[in-house]
Amino acid sequence: MHYRPLGRTGLKVSVIGIGTWQYGGEWGEPFSQAAVDAILDAAAEQGVNLIDTAECYGDHLAERRIGDYLARRRRSDWVVASKFGHHFHGPFQRSQHWQPREVLGQLEASLRALRSERIELYQFHSGADSVFFNDELWQLLRDQQQAGKIGHLGVSVDKNGNPAQVQAAAGVGAAALQVVYNRLQRGAEQHALPQAQADGLGVLARVPLASGYLSGKYAPGATFGDHDVRHQHDAASVQGWLREAQQVARDEVPKGVPIAQWALAWCLRNPAVASVIPGCKSPQQARQNASAAHLLDAHGQWRVSQ
What we know:
The protein has 306 residues and is of the alpha/beta class. The chain is built from ten helices and twelve strands. It has a single domain (3-210, 258-295), classed as NADP-dependent oxidoreductase domain (TIM Barrel). α1 (33-45) runs parallel beside α10 (283-290) and α2 (61-71) packs across α3 (100-114).
């Protein structure tokens, strides 16, 4: 495993982290505590030290699973990133809550769920400009930093990238930026990644496998069920991404290299990216994801011929 500084936070994070949306039950299957323990143990064995979660992954359910796990492990081994701004009501159903008093309540609930006195990275979660540009909100969050409940602030922008929030992130006190970035969705290269480098922000790249299209599991013609996040997209877009992923596998991925591992490493070859945070459904998948670090050297250069 390689580690990179998360911007100017002083934290060093594994280049492969772990996303935990699935633990909230929205991926069509529940995750028991034993299953989460096994996944996180497998990740830890490979050197992973970064967990990304959110309050709305099953109404703090993912956080509770993580908190239970961390209570039985050495907490200092892990960097935990969580988010605020939403409330879970059911599969793919959220309400938004951005008033400072509401956010304070979310923070306290997340700390209880995580069984922690401090969250290393606390992120604004895909909200509109109308709620982002609120001095009272950011002052509350900075006050909670002073109180020791938050290590660093971050901004997790929506799938469209939101250039205004990216540009303002450092000014409101954020030290990290979370963006959608993968081989099929490269919009972050236009503004977010250069701005992050200019401002010294650490970048977490989410959806690095393009919602599984770059996992190697699906061919053009594949369909997805009602409980699959990909079901939310129109059929034409889904099939277009599947065809593009097939072309990438044929023309860009070195022979003998699994496309999923290549896709994770592809994100990390960009020096702006500190870590990728793929979701993970099994211990085997945790190990496979972590092995993507082997495709790069410590400087982010390919070890395999391209």
